[in-house]
Amino acid sequence: MLRSGELDWEACMLDKFFGLFSHDVAIDLGTANTVVHVRGKGIVIREPSVVARHRKTKEVLAIGTEAKRMVGKTPATIEALRPLRHGVIADFDAAEAMLTHYIRQVHSGPSMFPKLPRPRVVVGIPSGVTEVERRAVQEAAIMAGAREAHLIEEPMAAAIGAGIPVEEPEGHLVVDIGGGTTEIAVISLGGIVVEHSIRVAGDELDEAVIGFARSKYGLLVGESTAEEVKIGIGSAYPLKEELKTVIRGRDLGTGLPKSIKISSVEIREALSGVVRQIVTAISEAIEETPPELVADILAHGLTMAGGGSQLRGIDTLIAEEVKMPVWVTDDPQTAVVRGGGIVLENPRLLKKVKVVGGLR
What we know:
Blueprint: H1 4-20, E1 25-29, E2 33-38, E3 42-48, E4 51-54, E5 60-63, H2 65-68, E6 78-81, E7 84-85, E8 88-89, H3 92-106, E9 120-125, H4 131-143, E10 148-153, H5 154-161, E11 172-177, E12 182-188, E13 191-198, H6 202-217, E14 219-220, H7 223-233, E15 244-251, E16 257-263, H8 264-288, H9 291-300, E17 302-305, H10 314-322, E18 326-328, H11 335-345, H12 347-353, E19 354-356
Parallel strand pairs: 1-9, 9-10, 11-17, 17-18
Antiparallel strand pairs: 1-2, 2-3, 4-5, 4-6, 7-8, 10-19, 11-12, 12-13, 14-15, 15-16
């Protein structure tokens, strides 16, 4: 019979063995996009978080960009869906299939010793999720082939990815606007002092565009069209030169195709309600912050990350509203996964900032 020390030694040796033949990865499992960082290689995958599968057999037909092209265009036998909603898993099987696909994709390719898909995995999650939702993400990663699955809160990962010294005794305010959630956190000494997680983000901005086209022009447009309009001419603050674009959809009155020309002024008005909710949440987080940390935040400024921070003028609007400097980190869409990649290289920091983690 093996003793406890012998079991620990065997587990350690097994972990080292799999470490030789598998790539450690950090994954930003987002509502809109999934980004994968491989230790020693950097970001290797950046794909939409969409899975297409057969409705009855549940056979997966496409994942990522190919699946996203099917959204709104599938026959009755096929569904194209997002496995995550508001930053948490809404369809476990689809999420597992997506994670398995990306882990295998990372380990594919010619090699003298083919990589075994048993990596250590760090996954970014919203700060406001429940324990059950955390366990669902961890279980999905384990089922996808991870030998270890560690979870780190997205605002903490974004701060690390942005180069913020999170372990120092000083306050930093991070706002991560993703597809399903907006994460607002005050960070100091390697922990989150104040956190607000609201389920208002990029998806709600898209829905605002859809609602605007329907109510003002009687035009029905899909999610993909709304997203294109948001990216193309969307803004949160008046532009020096306003933009225009043509959107196409179905006339709700006649049922026939219809095209209209809209301006960035109209879209800014449509988005204003959602943007206002985000600004209000930031203000509330600052109100809850201890005075000493507020002084630090005023000195350092507010750091923005996530795809939503790329909305034109949103940094300027927030700076005006909260009366402090605001800066958007480089390549904000990858800040979370870059932070995950950094903690993969630093076991001591990972141990300090992770919220869930363990062996398979």
